[in-house]
Amino acid sequence: MSNNSLPIRPIWRLQGFIDEKIPEGLDLVNAIDKLKKEKNAVVMAHYYQTADIQDIADIIGDSLALAQKAVGIDADVILLAGVHFMGETVKILNPHKKVLIPDMNAGCSLAESCPAESFSQFIKEHPGHKVISYVNTSADVKALTDVVVTSTNALQIVDSFPKDEKIIFGPDRNLGSYINAQIGRNMTLWNGACHVHEQFSLERILQLKKAYPDAELICHPECKHQIVVLSDFVGSTAALLSYIGRSSAKRFIVATESGILHQMQKSYPDKELIPAPPLDSTCGCNNCNYMKLNTLQKIYLTLKYEWPEVVVDEDIARKARRPIDAMLALSQNFKK
Ligand code: 13P
Ligand code: SF4
User: Fold this and answer.
1) Ligand 2 centroid – CA 27 distance (Å)
2) Model-wide pTM > 0.85
3) I need a labelling partner for 82 at 20 to 30 A (CA). Which of 69, 308, 311, 332 fits?
4) Buried residues in 9-37 as b, exposed as e (16+ CB within 10 A)
């Protein structure tokens, strides 16, 4: 092949996000708003995004809320500010819409801990089992699944299966063990985990509890068992947010990704929130480096160029849609 016939690939296509100088003095918030109107686009954001992104989003929520609100969205373009598997879920639910994410490198250590080929082998090794997968998985893994769950509905969905049903649960071993313990199940667990939630330091949390004896410790079920058993409340991102409103406590040590603290403080300004620290950190809080790849600048450029776009193979998308729809249908039966 001569040099002339080499395909031209702009550098930003190789790096997975658009890196272009923003005109000096450009007001990004107004510019994003203008692009949204021009393109009939909506921005969805997970609670783990930075405060400035949460504040420009049209739809904000935890993984379940984002999946529920993605159904029947009235827009031509959907930009998902979160991580790649969330973009895939939105695309699977909106196959004819353009779904964008600001940075293709926004993966997820939990989703990556469960490659589809190995998971498929695991399923073959456990015949006769129903397969329940956390939403933090690739579309290929969802395509191998009977029902998808999120941390908000996992306990209730597992509990809706007959007690003697044999179940494979993946990929989060901590969430799986938590459910097994809570409702007396013996699900076969995939050995995966989220590097953010596994990082919390028991020692530093105990120091905080000593310094603030009136504070309640609240944590996400992706945390390790030693943090879960110490906690006053365990729940998904949305459940932690609403718990702060319900609790009579004034102070909380929050063991989950620190992005949610923005909504907690906005919703309950009179409560004091102390982020639980990981072992090796000087900042004292715990950020997901994948979630934090997104910026207002990348959102602006992604809307402008309508790239990077999330693409899911049609056959995989069809197979992955069934367990997502099963989750959405089951979730309608649960009390909020
Ligand atoms: P939820 O949004 O279900 O709380 O999950 C947390 C998470 O880790 C998302 O990546
Ligand atoms: Fe994945 Fe953990 Fe980041 Fe959530 S917080 S996106 S589970 S790595």
Assistant:
1) 30
2) yes
3) 332
4) eeeeeeebbbeeeeeeeeebeebbeebbe
